[in-house]
Amino acid sequence: MGRFVWSVLALVLVLVTWVAPQASAQALMTTETLDLTPVRDPRDGSHGLRAELDIAAPISIVWAVLADCDTAPQHVPGMKSCKVLEQDRAGLWDIREHRVKLPWFPLVLRNVVRSDYEPLTRLRYQKARPDGQRLDGEWRLTPINGGAATHIVYVGYLTGVLPIPELILRAYVRDGIEAVRTESLSRARLLTRPSLP
């Protein structure tokens, strides 16, 4: 049971950056409900989830939200800390420790994840210390609307543990993706806000 909880936490920490959006439908550039599609990796049959959405923020802002460890606890509900343990001098990968407190679990839990970066294009993640479980995925970003907005494709997999109720998994993934959108929109609005003379 402990392994199950640990793996749920790992998925939550890696996949999510939360907070429900409060912007208008026009600003969100998408429907009210984010569609999550079940997918299966043909290589090993792993089950995963896929999402596709547009965000009315430049790709540089969306990328900054995805890659920012320092401010993650400010917009990730339950995240107590995000700490970079190791990193490439060129900024092409890092290993991070997340500590999170979920409302339904009494302890603060720890997860260690390796992220590989193709700046402004793709962020891939996986468990930093493989233990027979599969926890990996990626965010792919493409500029749209002349660079004023970003198209995102997200795919994530989790296998090798007890089955996670689909409704719980979908809720956490959806909340995480929505929070990336919300934080990106918030940062974009700050950049476009006129400065006072």
Strand order of the largest sheet: 1-2-8-7-6-5-4-3
Q: Provide a count of the helices.
A: 5
Structural class: alpha+beta
Number of domains: 1
Q: Largest sheet, described in full?
A: 8 strands, antiparallel
Q: For this structure, what is the CATH class? A: Alpha Beta
Quote the average pLDDT.
79
Number of strand segments = 8
Stretches with pLDDT under 50, minimum 5 residues? 1-32
Distance between the termini: 59 Å
Q: CATH H-level name... which superfamily?
A: START domain
CATH-level-2 architecture:
2-Layer Sandwich
Helix content: 25-40%
Task: List its salient traits.
single chain, alpha+beta, Alpha-D-Glucose-1,6-Bisphosphate, Chain A, domain 4, 8-stranded antiparallel sheet, 5 helices, 36% strand
Descriptive overview:
An eight-stranded antiparallel beta sheet has the order 1-2-8-7-6-5-4-3. The chain contains five helices and eight strands, in the order ααββααββββββα. It is of the alpha+beta class and 197 residues long. It has helices spanning 2-15, 25-28, 59-67, 72-75, 166-192, and strands spanning 36-40, 47-55, 79-87, 93-101, 108-118, 122-127, 134-144, 149-159. Helices cover 29% and strands 36% of the residues. The longest helix is centred in the last third of the chain and has 27 residues, at 166-192. It has a single domain (2-192), classed as START domain (Alpha-D-Glucose-1,6-Bisphosphate, Chain A, domain 4), CATH 3.30.530.
